[in-house]
Design goal:
By secondary structure, the chain is α+β, with helices and mostly antiparallel strands. It contains 5 helices and 11 strands, in the order E-H-H-H-E-E-E-H-E-E-E-H-E-E-E-E.
């Protein structure tokens, strides 16, 4: 067990105290982030987002083992309670459900434990360390951004990646004109038409080598060939 030592005002006011603890916290978060990327190589971008959430002080560890995560969306704050699952839109499509909110919750827990071990190692062996300071929350915006009178979302493929672009404007006609320009830059790729006849049971047929027509190249369980033509 790690004992927590009450810090006096003189100790907390000593030169370098806040800097050293802040550096230790950021170092612990960075170390956990490296391990997270190694464990979840397909979620590197989500890990980076989780680091920003943790360092912004937007993770609150609850007494029941859950974590409350603040997420900024369209200028408003939305909270997700994480306990192995998450209510965000990314959770169903994230690899094994590891959205940035779940990663941030785990990162907060592990970085806190790592920082305590690091500070314990630097004491005189008595196991007394200062309490881990909570990350200072980022200053909230003075006022939420006003909602645009007209907006539209469009998805397209760019460099092999699916991209979502949000256009906002105060005039609907002008917004549609801007959207038309975007769509002209990224036309929908048309796939060649496949006119190969299909067996209703087994899929694509093959052309007959004995004459005209097509046949199904699938042999049935009884040894006979499928008779679809």
């Amino acid at each position: 067990m790690v004992a927590l030592k009450e810090i006096t005002w003189e100790e907390a006011s000593a030169p370098g105290f806040e800097t050293s603890t802040r550096q230790a916290w950021r170092a612990a978060v960075a170390e956990i982030a490296v391990k997270a990327k190694q464990t979840l190589p397909d979620c590197a971008g989500r890990v980076e987002s989780a680091v920003k959430i943790v360092l912004a002080g937007d993770v609150e560890l609850l007494a029941d083992g859950k974590a409350k995560i603040a997420s900024q969306s369209n200028g408003t704050t939305q909270y997700f309670v994480v306990n192995g699952t998450c209510e965000c839109k990314d959770f169903p499509r994230a690899p094994s459900g590891w959205c940035k909110h779940r990663i941030a919750a785990g990162m907060q827990k592990r970085a806190t434990a790592l920082m305590q071990r690091t500070l314990t190692a630097g004491t005189n062996g008595q196991g007394e360390v200062p309490a881990v300071p909570a990350p200072t929350p980022a200053e909230p915006p003075t006022a939420p951004l006003p909602e645009a009178p007209a907006s539209v979302n469009v998805r397209f493929e760019l460099g092999g990646r699916e991209v979502q672009l949000t256009l906002r404007d105060s005039d609907e006609g002008r917004l549609l004109a801007r959207l038309d320009v975007i769509l002209q830059r990224f036309p929908v790729a048309t796939k060649p038409v496949d006119d190969t006849p299909q067996c209703p049971t087994h899929g694509a047929m093959k052309p007959s080598t004995k004459g005209k027509g097509w046949y199904c190249p699938v042999k049935l369980a009884d040894g006979a060939w499928c008779k679809a033509r």
